[in-house]
Write a structure and sequence with these properties.
heterotrimer; A: about 210 residues; mainly alpha; 7 helices; globular; B: about 290 residues; two-stranded antiparallel sheet; 12 helices; about 60% helix; extended
Chain lengths: ~210, ~290, ~300
């Protein structure tokens, strides 16, 4: 049962990769966070850690409802053009995501020798991390970098909660808080960037050179 | 600036290795080290040590010349510029610093045989040689660099002798002969308007050195004449320079190479944030891939 | 205590003979030029005369001008004392003490603000800085031969080797430079193109000039005595045996006279060199020092 949900999480990540519009990207992110919530619930059920229930509902609240809503608001406030600028077109992005999944599978084979749940979990979480980084690199608009960071955080959290019983409780709370605050800050930044430059096209912000 | 001049004079004397100050003791000990080291080396190295010692003497002679020039042309005779004419004595804090250092030169010179023991301990620790059995001073006033070798140096006795003889000379000066002195102009060869521009300057003082070492210093001059007509030169500007050999042939080429290297490395920094992010990502991937290998 | 008395006695003897040596050299030079020349005691008469003259001091001179004669004479006499008192210093200390006198003399020359003084001090520092390496190589070759830089090492009886002969020649050339004799400097002239030491003491008069002259005689005698000790070795005076002391004294004077004759011959036969050729002259002394060192290394 948990493997299927892991698989669906990976599929939702692929959905993010092929998204061509901002709203579909955010929608795919919500799906991914929802399945993450389910996994954490199951993990809490099997590991019998009370903390994991709390963390799971925190994920539901923050990553499925609050943060995507905040991102929608920011996008609307800056009158964002729906077109999500792609450096790498969606077909090639999908192939790259598959290659990254393959890399993470090889890597997890090196770590875990038996064919069981841990193998699948490590593969999926590392591929989510890599795909999140890939999103940051290959998408033009600044908001997509925020979403890429959130996806990476999702992947790391998935690794922690599916293999061990989650990270120590305080660490998870702290990480959540950090993510929340950084999303708010980045949202503000995106708004200010748009106010100054009237676009959030990061490829045009190239002053930081030698 | 009488006090500044006095402290500067002490410092200049110490650098030029004049007894009884600390520079003299240092120079003497270094030369003794060169000489005594020649006992432990084979033939060619002995000659090398001797030439090193003579080059050290050359530098101390050149340093003395430099400080005669520096002190003499700055503080002595008529002021050579209106800044020098209107100079005021320095503030107390500046004088205190100079006084402290001047006193140190005297103290280190006179108390050398007492200090040399502690300094030798430091040297022994650095070079790893056991010096607990060696004694570098005979009693508290004499330095004996190698026991058994008949070489001694006693700076306090030397200073005492200098002062005593100076006092005796002063007594003879005062007691014998006439005591009348007359203050008059400097000998000017009959030229009646001798002023500060007739005095020696630093460029003039160092001219013999520029000529003797011209193979290294490569002096050159630039002249410019402003003429009224062909026969009448209104003004003549003369500049003389020495080629900065080290800057021109060592430091500038090195700096140019470093700058060229840095400019060529600018190409990995085009300004695109996505590129920078991909650098991070690729490094991460590389680390993960190679993690198992090491 | 007794040692101190002996040292003082020898020192006074030294100071007493120093002007006589200079007078002797001048008389011999004049005789070689087919002139009658002045009496050999003329330097003494000059010093006494200078003591009775009034001093004229320049308006621009500071305390350095007045202090310098005392510093110069005390440095010369201390250098002479170091030859006898070996527990206070060695040959290197002699060199540096003479440098003290030269430093102050050069400063006092700049003090009066005349161009002669500046020129003299510039040339003097130039010549002395080039003479130091040669002098130090001579000291090094003596060190290799005798085992220590102390003057007592070659003060007594010792063998005369090739190394010490070459060292004596190099030391002789350096002495000519340090004591301002032809071909480096002319003591009898006051033409600005040709004077070095005289240019520095141009502004001095009266008793100060007497002290500086006496100091230069003593410095010359110090160098000559060292050359004599190396070239013509003799055991030191044993003041208990009067006959031996008397013979030692005669041999002491005889060595000085021999060196004085050689100096006078050199002064008469060679013309004064251009200043920038003095560098070559001292380079030749340096090369001779290297030869002396090599001979000492080879044990010859």
């Amino acid at each position: 049962m948990p493997e299927i949900i892991l698989f669906v999480t990976l599929v939702s990540t692929y959905l993010m990769v092929i998204a061509k519009r901002m709203s579909s990207l955010i929608l795919a992110f919500r799906c991914q966070s929802f399945f993450l919530f389910l996994i954490t619930l199951i993990a809490g059920f099997t590991e019998k850690h009370v903390d994991l229930y709390f963390v799971a509902f925190l994920i539901l609240a923050l990553k499925v409802f609050i943060i995507p809503h905040f991102l929608y608001l920011t996008a609307k406030r800056i009158n964002l053009d729906e077109n999500l600028g792609l450096f790498v077109n969606s077909q090639l992005s999908l192939i790259t995501a598959l290659v990254l999944t393959f890399f993470s599978w090889i890597f997890s084979r090196r770590i875990v020798l038996s064919q069981d749940y841990a193998l699948v979990a490590i593969t999926v979480s590392f591929s989510i991390v890599f795909i999140g980084a890939f999103l940051m690199i290959s998408r033009v608009k600044a908001l997509s970098q925020v979403i890429g960071l959130l996806v990476m955080e999702n992947g790391i959290f998935l690794l922690a909660s599916s293999i061990s019983g989650g990270m120590p409780f305080f660490v998870e709370i702290a990480v959540f808080f950090d993510v929340f605050v950084s999303v708010i800050v980045m949202g503000l930044f995106v708004y200010r960037i748009n106010k100054l430059f009237t676009h959030i096209d990061v490829s045009k912000l190239s002053q930081l050179k030698g | 600036m009488p006090q500044t001049a006095a402290y500067f004079l002490l410092g200049a004397m110490a650098i030029s290795a004049l007894p009884p100050l600390n520079g003299f003791v240092s120079e003497w000990l270094t030369l003794q080290a060169f000489f005594l080291g020649a006992f432990n080396t084979a033939g060619g190295d002995k000659l090398f040590l001797g030439i090193c010692a003579s080059l050290l003497a050359l530098t101390s002679g050149l340093a003395a010349a430099c400080f005669v020039k520096a002190f003499g042309l700055t503080f002595l005779a008529r002021p050579r510029s209106h800044y020098a004419e209107n100079a005021k004595e320095a503030s107390l804090s500046m004088k205190a610093g100079m006084l402290f250092l001047a006193i140190l030169t005297i103290v280190f010179g006179l108390a050398a045989s007492a200090i040399i023991g502690s300094l030798a301990k430091v040297a022994g620790a650095v070079t790893g040689i056991d010096i607990s059995a060696m004694k570098f001073s005979l009693n508290n006033i004499t330095i004996n660099p190698q026991a058994g070798n008949g070489t001694y140096l006693s700076v306090p006795l030397l200073a005492l002798a200098l002062i005593l003889i100076g006092l005796i000379a002063f007594a003879v000066y005062k007691l014998f002969g006439t005591n009348k002195t007359r203050i008059y102009k400097t000998w000017d060869c009959g030229y009646y308007k001798l002023d500060a521009r007739n005095e020696y300057t630093a460029t003039a003082f160092s001219k013999p050195f520029r000529i003797a070492f011209s193979f290294f210093l490569r002096p050159y001059r630039k002249t410019q004449k402003t003429r009224d007509s062909f026969y009448h030169v209104k003004s003549f500007a003369y500049e003389t320079h020495t080629t900065p050999v080290f800057i021109k042939h060592i430091y500038d080429p090195m700096l140019n190479i470093i700058f060229k290297l840095a400019k060529s490395m600018k190409r990995i920094q085009p300004g695109s944030i996505h590129l920078y992010l991909s650098y991070i990502f690729l490094t991460l991937l590389l680390l993960i891939v190679l993690m198992g290998r090491f | 205590m007794e040692k101190m008395f002996l040292i003082t006695f020898r020192l006074i003897l030294f100071i007493g003979i120093a002007p006589l040596l200079s007078g002797l050299i001048t008389r011999m030079k004049n005789n070689m030029r087919m002139r009658r020349g002045q009496s050999i005691f003329q330097p003494y008469y000059n010093l006494i005369k200078l003591f009775s003259k009034k001093e004229v001091i320049s308006q621009t001179a500071s305390w350095i001008f007045r202090v310098t004669p005392f510093v110069v004479i005390s440095s010369s006499i201390a250098a002479a004392m170091l030859i006898f008192a070996n527990h206070i210093g060695d040959f290197l200390a002699v060199i540096f003490i003479l440098a003290l006198g030269r430093f102050f003399l050069a400063l006092s020359a700049l003090d009066t603000g005349s161009s002669f003084g500046g020129m003299g001090s510039s040339r003097e520092m130039f010549i002395s800085s080039l003479a130091e390496p040669a002098l130090l190589l001579v000291v090094f070759s003596l060190f290799l031969q005798f085992g220590s830089t102390s003057i007592s090492a070659f003060g007594g009886m010792h063998a005369v080797t090739v190394s010490s002969v070459v060292a004596v020649i190099a030391l002789f050339l350096v002495t000519i430079a340090e004591t301002s004799r032809v071909p480096v400097d002319n003591q009898e002239t006051h033409l600005e193109l040709t004077m070095v030491h005289e240019a520095m003491v141009l502004e001095y008069s009266g008793k100060s000039l007497a002290m500086i002259e006496l100091a230069s005689y003593i410095k010359q005698m110090v160098f000559f005595l060292i050359i004599a000790q190396i070239a013509f070795p003799a055991a030191g005076p044993n003041f208990i045996n009067l006959m031996q002391t008397f013979l030692w004294f005669i041999w002491y004077l005889a060595r000085m006279v021999i060196i004085a004759v050689v100096v006078a011959l050199v002064e008469v036969s060679v013309a004064k060199m251009r200043l920038f050729r003095v560098a070559d002259f001292l380079a030749f002394a340096f090369v001779l020092g290297i030869v002396a060192t090599v001979c000492a290394i080879l044990g010859v």
